[in-house]
Amino acid sequence: MRILAINDISCVGKCSLTVALPIISACGVTCDILPTAILSTHTGGFTGYTFRDLSEDIPAILDHWKSLELRYDIIISGYLGSIAQIDMVKGVKDSFLRPGGTMIVDPVMGDNGKLYAHFDDAYVEEMKGLCRKADILVPNLTEACYLTGIPYSEAIKGNYAAVWQALKSLCPRPSVTGCDEKIGGKMMSTVYYSDDAGNMKTYSTEKIEGAFHGAGDVYSSALAGALARGTDMDTAVRLSAEFTTASIRQTKKDGTPARYGLNSESQMLSFLEALDKSLKK
Ligand code: PXL
Fold first, then answer.
1. Which structural domain, as residue segments, surrounds residue 185?
2. Domain containing 79 — which CATH number?
């Protein structure tokens, strides 16, 4: 099994490739990387960060890989620095995903109802085109709203199934993370996802109050790693959601500022043990 992770390198702040690479590798899967940009920190909650767009380097990297005849079982894309890079990712799928392989798109664009810095409506439009090339789509609720045109203010009233349904026009197996809802008197964070047959299912974990940076990256990386090891989607979603929630819980306990990302390192062993157990069933 071989995964290609396309994402930026934020040197500080634990997101994107500094999260994807350790988590996917720990799952026991080769993780090659295509860095889209190098930043001194990510763009959420820091000011004064450096941002080197690597678009100019990418064609030569891909030409070299073509000479090696590389093919990937899974390609997962995340933060892309520009509209041109969205087009580039579409080409990477066409050239490097093996027939029958899985394209996972995390349309990283925003959170808490707002787009991140540097993104605008034109970027959202272009991202819809990449989502149409995905086998599995893993936006958070904010990104799902931008992709479907459903206002965030409406979605947070609990219309999550409608958001999932609307995403179906882009991708056969969409999911939406971070859907807050009260279940049995308790606030839960639910993922509305598609099982292997494409039917809508939900999985809920305890809602931990606060905005935690890099949670989406932990979730999507664990999901890719588990799927690469051969779990079904139900299992991959359960393991990834529990791993992410446990990481958020520990980060809150540690009291580190949210912008420095999740303490997923402390929860990695439990996640891997749960993955191992699910594979032996
Ligand atoms: O975690 C998402 C993400 C990834 N990469 C960069 C970001 C963000 C969110 O702010 O700024 C550079």
1. 2-279
2. 3.40.1190.20
| Structural tokens at position 246 | 């446990």
pLDDT for 51-82, tens place per residue? 999 999 999 999 999 999 999 999 999 999 89
Does 44 contact ligand 1 (Cβ within 6 A)?
A: yes
Cα of 95 from ligand 1 centre, angstroms: 26
Centroid of ligand 1 to alpha carbon of 91 (angstroms): 22
DSSP letter (8 states) at residue 108: -
Report the number of distinct structural domains present in the chain: 1
The model scores a pTM over 0.90:
yes
Q: What is the pLDDT of residues 217-273, one digit of tens each?
A: 999 999 999 999 999 999 999 999 999 999 999 999 999 999 999 999 999 999 999
55, 106, 240, 269 alpha-carbon torsion, rounded to 10°: 10
15 lines ligand 1 (CB under 6 A): yes
Q: Report residue 149 as tokens.
A: 């045109």
Q: Is 28 exposed, middle or buried (0-12, 13-18, 19+ CB in 10 A)?
A: middle
Is the C-beta atom of 42 inside 6 A of ligand 1? yes
